[in-house]
Amino acid sequence: MSNAYYPDDADGSPHTSLLGSEFSDYDEATQTATMRFTVKREMTTWRGGVQGGLVAGYLDDVMGYAYVAATGGEMAPLNLEISMSLIRLIPEGPLIGKGRVVKSGRKVIFLEGELYSEEGKLMARATSTALPTPRPSSTDSGMV
Asked: Are 98 and 111 spatial neighbours (Cβ–Cβ below 8 Å)?
């Protein structure tokens, strides 16, 4: 994908394949990223919805890419805390994520995210507190 806000190597990340992530858009004015996800059956429970911890993964992805995009692909958040509300059962199929940078400082970042059905129903929302770190790559994790 060619997008100034989305790193060229991001599609090679193992979690991108697992989550069925696709970067759609970034609004610089509001620092909001939009992503599409394809929820696979393997992500669901016997109830037919995505397991709660995995919902956090979708929210983490879209909130994280909002910050990555806001920094031109240079930085990535390292989560300290995620708080999540599961509003509706998320079934297998398409899902839209919106993530935004609420405040970004030198030492801490505040992020928000939501997941929506294709029809626009709110499915889940989250907030995150994170540390700004250099964005890892396939050859350098950024961890010492």
From this structure: no
Q: What proportions of the chain, in percent to the nearest 5, are helix, strand and coil?
A: 20, 45, 35
**Fold topology of 10-134:** Thiol Ester Dehydrase; Chain A (3.10.129)
pTM, to two decimals? 0.87
Say how far apart CA 34 and CA 65 lie, in whole Å.
9
| Cβ contacts of 38-44, under 8 Å, gap ≥ 24 | 38/93, 38/94, 38/95, 39/90, 39/91, 39/92, 39/93, 39/94, 39/95, 40/92, 41/92, 43/19, 43/92, 44/91, 44/92
Give the pair of three-digit tokens for residue 73.
Answer: 């692909």
Q: Helix, strand or coil for residue 90?
A: coil
Q: What is the largest CA-CA distance in the chain?
A: 44
**Between the CA of residue 134 and those of 5, 78, 96, 98, 113, what are the distances in Å?**
15, 10, 27, 22, 21
pLDDT in tens, 57-113: 999 999 999 999 999 989 999 999 999 999 999 999 999 999 999 999 999 999 999
Tokens 């129903």 — which residue?
A: 121
